[in-house]
Fold:
Amino acid sequence: MTSATTPASARREPELAGQTVVLIGGSSGIGLETARRARADGADVILTGRNQDRLTQAALELGAQRTAAFDANDAASMQRFFQDLPAPIDHVMVTAGGPSYRPLLEMDPAEVSQALSGHVVQVLEVARNAAGKMRPGGTLLLMGGTGGRRISHGNGIFSAATAVLPPFTATLALELAPVRVNLIAAGFVDTPLSASLLGDQLEERRDELRATLPIGRVVGPADVAALAVHIMTNTALTGATFDIDGGQQFVD
Structure:
């Protein structure tokens, strides 16, 4: 039996070559890792975030096409950002923001409204402003979670906010077609945001997950980035929710 090396001409071409990926919240964590993965697969990337210094550092590392520093919850800033982008773009991923675990009875009406609808409103502003510049078959990619599917004292309002996203994603996919819309539902991901939420309990949580998850390790940003790029390149996927939590929802 003989073996042969694969000639260079037969190697897989980068699947995102010639495409542009916009990361809303792309200066750290999952957004930054997805930008890194997309660049490795041939894409040009555009990064946004609130911290200009982090954006500048990320852009230098990745060779990003451009950056923009603004608050993703500011509708006027979001509109200006997309107005200034040259068309066309192909994929937009929204990772800005984070979950709220406040107990329901401790929240005032404005806080409840923000926790339940803030991410949806943010994504709708992205969709309205990006749709006219996106190529058919491109994707708007949202982030949600699997952890909120269980009702518990610790989750607070997070469970209700989590439940909103799958039907929202499916409905938006119908309205934006032929642009695709999909949702990534992650469990614990070892990111700077997780570190800030858990503080000195971070290492204990890592150890617990290593011991209990079916995959035997903690999910990292690179795992989510790999899924995100797959969703971008597989043009049959729309209106769907993709779980990535290492089996956490079954054992937590």
